[in-house]
């Protein structure tokens, strides 16, 4: 399906500003692992899963804030188990520790929702020496998913969801400069990371082919959130001028829930969901040779193969 104009900016602003509330399902006994669930649409989506009786494990970099979300859910009397794991997606060692604890704690993983994200307004480096937007929006979720993948495969009808972005459409990949040392901008770095996330989704879908598990990537739409709160310069002006066109936060949350639970998407894997329809992603994500090259580099950067210097 094609969007009305087929272009990134017009279609972003013409996106539907509402969505049908996805009906409750009985998720009793189901385990939902959620990154980025302490704020914005992620926080609302977590509560929706909790309403349905799911066991929630919330990954968060701020222990007090994460515990606050858990306490709020507990006070509302939801029947599922609630737990948290400290994990800053900026740190690959923390991701590894969180994955180890997850495997110790959970015998099955029904849903892995990678919603954590950042929009660093300047070129800063992660604790591992990688460009921050690339590290948090891509390398962290990549590593977490890879470390949990075998357990996910063992869980009947498991689902992985990467929360991506419409900006992937304007992204480019320079394999010789993935850390954007030569030419960095907020949009360039953010769009590149989200494109990489979609490429990872396609690669994982290929490896899940003989299992009942699926993985998809979602652009939740232009949603009112705090992700742009640290923007500066032109990006800050953009937010001030066009922020009023963003859809309410709950709309993004409902799209996360729908993409995870709706049977319309459970027979699809490796797909890009644009709000509520399946669309072709950036052509780079459909290039198998480029996907394979990115996966090789990603494994090296995250220590899944021999250590290498940042590209």
- Strand arrangement in the largest pleated sheet: 3-2-1-4-5-6-7-8
Strand segment tally: 8
**What is the average of the pLDDT values?**
90
Cα-to-Cα separation, first versus last residue: 35 Å
Helix content: 40-55%
Largest sheet: 8 strands, mixed
Tell me the series of helices and strands, N- to C-terminal: HEHEHEHEHEHEHHHEEH
- Assembly annotation: single chain
Using only CA atoms, what is the Rg? 18 Å
- Extract low-pLDDT stretches: 306-311
Task: List the topology elements.
Layout: H1 8-13, E1 31-35, H2 40-51, E2 55-60, H3 63-75, E3 82-86, H4 92-105, E4 111-114, H5 132-154, E5 159-163, H6 186-207, E6 214-219, H7 233-242, H8 249-261, H9 263-266, E7 271-274, E8 277-279, H10 288-301
Helix pairs in contact: 2-8, 4-5, 5-6, 6-10
How would you describe this structure to a colleague?
The protein has an eight-stranded mixed β-sheet, sandwiched between helices. α4 (92-105) runs parallel beside α5 (132-154) and α6 crosses α10. β2, α3 (63-75) and β3 (82-86) form a beta-alpha-beta unit. The chain is built from ten helices and eight strands. With 311 residues, the protein is an alpha/beta fold.
